[in-house]
Amino acid sequence: MDKNHEKFRKWLEIAKKTRRNSPLTFSRIPTDDYLKAEVRLGAEDYWLYFGKETASDCQKTDEPNVWIQINDNDTISIGLAFNANNSVNKAENILRGYARGVKEQLFKHFKGESGWWAVIQIRQKFHNFSESPIYEERKRVPINELNEDKVEELFSDAKNIIKEYSERTKLPLDDPKYLCVGGGASFNLLEKEIPATEQAFEEAFAFAHDSLLICLKVKTPAEHNREQNKRYTALKCKEKTCSHKCYDPKNYDKPYCDFDGGSLEKVQLTKDEWINEFGYPPNDSK
Ligand SMILES: [Zn+2]
Fold it and tell me: What is the reported pLDDT for 34?
């Protein structure tokens, strides 16, 4: 293990301890997915990420993650990033879209916290897809000032950045403004520089970690639609006058209706129809 890996070890241990002691209120999320720490070699420095286990590449994943950077001047930068263009959409959903409850929870969590910023950046790759991106800051708002107007500003900016990025990828290769694919917008919902002390780190990590748990309860529009479009197979009695109608195939294996002996056919129900019919959600939905 080289020196740079070693210098993260201390903070990783504190992070693990802090999470154990922090009052996690969102226990429905399997906590073992977190703190699957990954040390990545960035362009100039090492970063440490905390996110879902499936987020094998933190720069491309649609999931938000918490990151830590150790700076030279005895400070640590810590943040909660929505790094890929799709995950910026996810952040937008949190702050203005589908998940009103999550947004309120998050704003409540942010209330009274000082020193944290929400930051929109453009993520640029100048030569090839595999190079580490260079980030350029475009807009910064203190999180305790976030309101509908500020959120509107941040995300109209993010949309402009994605548009600008897409136009710059079409420029001739020798144009100084040319960008290659793999860039776009990046959003840090949280960002703060703290002194590299145990106490400051513990506090900042617990805050970022709990914010991440709140954010991970949110679906992208695509995930939301996929769930809406999903169908579940039930067994339906063919007798038009039957008042029993549907059976759950998981706990009914007879080929006929118990109520009137009618034969059964397979029907496809939406999640809502299933819940209406049976009073409980279909097996594979959360
Ligand atoms: Zn029947």
Answer: 42
